[in-house]
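Hey, can you fold this one?
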Amino acid sequence: MSEESRREVRAGLEPSLARLWRYALVLSRARDVADDLVQATCVRAIERADQFVPGTKVDRWLLAILRSIWLNELRSRRIREGRGFADAEQVLTTDGAREIEMNTTASAVLRAIDQLPEAQREAVLLVYGEGYSYAEAAAALAVPIGTIMSRLAAARAALAKMK
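Sure. Predicted structure:
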């Protein structure tokens, strides 16, 4: 089982990198911190690959590891507000008129989402950004499904007021 776990984890790392980075950026709000979180997640996943259950979803397991690392960092040091903040316009690329329009809209959405409390940002990213079901998001965040539903409802209400 251990060798099969290691193979699945290694095979699942590269396809999950973009998703991990987006999640890390939403949590940390800083590109350099997101990079470090993804790297730490990959290292921990490789070190603990024997803990992965073959046949389950590697990306879900990796997101849980990333979140655990982030929470441990939060507990060990205080994050200064605004330090290393990545503006949505800098994160998105612009190439051509259609892309500019899409990125302008995406940038506005990201700025609005960035104003939400962290718990709501996480729920929005997992459900709307990554396509998780409510149950999968609840499992990833280790909260009841009702909490996910509540966070999403609160996020939608807050976003509607921002229009």
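Helices lie at 2-28, 31-47, 58-76, 88-91, 97-114, 118-129, 134-141, 145-162. Let me know if you want another pass with a different chain boundary.
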